[in-house]
Amino acid sequence: MYKILSLDGGGSWSLIQLLTLQDRYPGKRGHEILQDFDMVIANSGGSIVLAALVEDWTIDKALELFHKRETRERIFSRNSYRERFFPTDILGLFTSFGPKYSAKRKGEAFRELFKQSDKRQMTDLPEFIGKKDLKIIVATYDALNNRAKFFKSFGSGAHYDSVRLTQAIHGSSNAPIQYFDFPARFKAKNSGVYFELWDGALGGFNNPIAAGIIEAVKCGVPKKDIVVVSLGTSNKLMSMEDKDEFYKVKQIAIKERHKKYLVWRLKYPLKFFKASILNQAKTILYEPPDWSNYVAYMFLYGEAYTTGDHEAHTSRFIRLSPLLHVDAAAPEATANLVSTLYKMDMNLTLDAEIAKVGECYAQWKAGQIKNQTIEFMVTRQNEIISTIGHQTYQEAYDAWMRI
Question: Residue 294 CA to chain centroid, in angstroms?
Fold first, then answer.
C-alpha cells in the first residue's frame, strides 16, 4: 500500500484541513501524521498546512495560523496606497479590484514562522521528519516560462532545483490578480535558476492529487498499490438566486450594450463586466477541483466505468471537502450559513470570518453540508446527483479509518 496525502489550496479556508486532520489524528504531532504517508503533495493554503506539519507542531498550534488574527495579517499583509503600483493604486481608491497584499512580507512571515523548514533544503526534510523515503511535493506556477512547476524533496544532479520549503510555499501561496502584488522570487541551489512564481492553481493544480499520482507512478509504484487521501478547503456552487441574478444582469447587459451614450444606463453592463472579471480572478480559489479528482480516479480505476464497481475503488480514494450548496432539503440554519459562506473570499483576516469557516466544518462533519464527491451533476432544479464517491463527511472518514 502506497499512501498519498493531497492538500488543496484555499487560503484561510485551509483551516478545514487542519480540523479534519485533528479529527483523524487526535493528539498527534506533525511528524507522526506525515509518517503515516509515503507522499504528501500540496498547493497554496495546503502547502502552509504542510509546513506546519513539517515543523512538528501539534494541530492546536497549527490552528493558530488561522485563529490568531496577528498571524493571518502577517500572511495577508495589506499594502498601503504608497506601496500599490499603477493602475491598481488608483483603482483601489474606487473598487475592490486589484492586488491587495505584499508578497515580500508574506515570504518574510513564512521564514519567521517555519524556522525548521527555513534552515533545511527540501531534500533534508524526510530524514528530519523521521521517514527517509517520504516524498514531499509543492505545486507552483513558473511565471517566466508559463508552466506548472513542482518543487520536490527528491532529486539530484546539476539540474535539480533544490529549494527550502519556505521558498516553495511562498511561491505556491502567491495568488495573483486579486491578492498578492508580485511573483515570489528566489534562486534554486544546484541548478542556479532564478524563479518568479505564482500560485500553483494557475497551472490547474489547486487540487494537486492528479500530479501526485503521476509522480508516484513515475517512481515505479504500481497503480494497484496507490491509496489516496485528498483534503479540500470547500468548493462553492452557485445558488439558484445567484444563477438567476447572473442571467438577469447578462440579459440586460446584452440589451443595453449599444446605448453607450446613455451613461446613466451603464449600471448593468458594468456590473456584468465586474462579475466576469472577478470570476476569472478568483479561479485561484474556485478552480474546480472536480477535474483533478475525476482524472486521478479514472487514471487509477478507469475499468470501474465498465464494471460499475465504484464502491471497491472509492474505499481507496478518499475525498474530503465541503460542497457549499443549498437544496430544498437543507435546514434553514445551514442555508443561512452557506449563504454567508458564498460571499466570503480566500483572504479571511477577521475573527468573525474564521469562526464561520469553523461553523462550516462543524456542519459538514455533522452531515448538514454535503461532501464533495469525485463525480456529480447539478440538475436544472439545482439539486446534486452524486455518481462516484462519499456523499458525507462520515462516509469518507469511515473509509479513511479502514485504510
Answer: 16
- Asked if 233 contacts 14 with a C-beta cutoff of 8 angstroms, the reply is yes
Report CA-CA distances (Å) from 125 to 146, 377, 392. 28, 41, 34
The continuous run of DSSP H or E covering 93 comes out as: helix 88-94
Nine-digit cell string for 96: 475592490
- pLDDT recorded at residue 401: 97
Q: Can you read off the three cell numbers belonging to residue 347?
A: 483572504
Distance CA 217, CA 21 (A): 26
Looking at 321-392, list the stretches that DSSP marks H as alpha helix, in order from N- to C-terminal side.
332-342, 351-365
Specify whether the CB–CB gap between 163 and 152 falls below 8 A.
no
The predicted-structure confidence for 133-183, as pLDDT tens digits, reads as follows: 999 999 999 999 999 999 999 998 989 999 999 999 999 999 998 899 999
> What are the backbone dihedrals phi and psi of residue 337, each rounded to the nearest 5 degrees, phi first?
-65, -50
Distance CA(164)–CA(78), nearest Å, equals 25
Q: How far is CA 32 from CA 27, 54, 129, 401, in A?
A: 10, 10, 8, 16
Grid cell of 69 as nine digits: 488574527
Considering only residues 249 and 369, tell me which one the structure prediction assigns the higher pLDDT: 369
**Residue where the block lists cell 513539517:** 54
pLDDT in tens, 89-108: 666 666 667 789 999 999 99
295 grid coordinates? 482524472
Amino acid (one-letter) located at 185: R
Choose the weakest-confidence range: 114-123, 151-160, 165-174, 248-257: 248-257
Q: How far is CA 17 from the centre of its chain?
A: 10
DSSP tally for the chain: helices H, then strands E = 20, 15
Residue among 3, 2, 5 nearest 208 (CA): 5
| Mean pLDDT score, 272-292 | 65
Mean pLDDT (whole number) for 177-197: 94
Cα distance between residue 61 and residue 55, in whole Å = 10
Distances (CA, A) of 261 to 188, 250, 272: 54, 19, 18
Write out the E strands in 265-321: 317-320
For 111-125, 222-236, 257-271, which range has the lowest pLDDT when averaged over its residues?
257-271
How far is it, in rounded angstroms, from Cα 54 to Cα 378? Answer: 39
Cα dihedral 71, 72, 76, 80, rounded to 10, equals -70
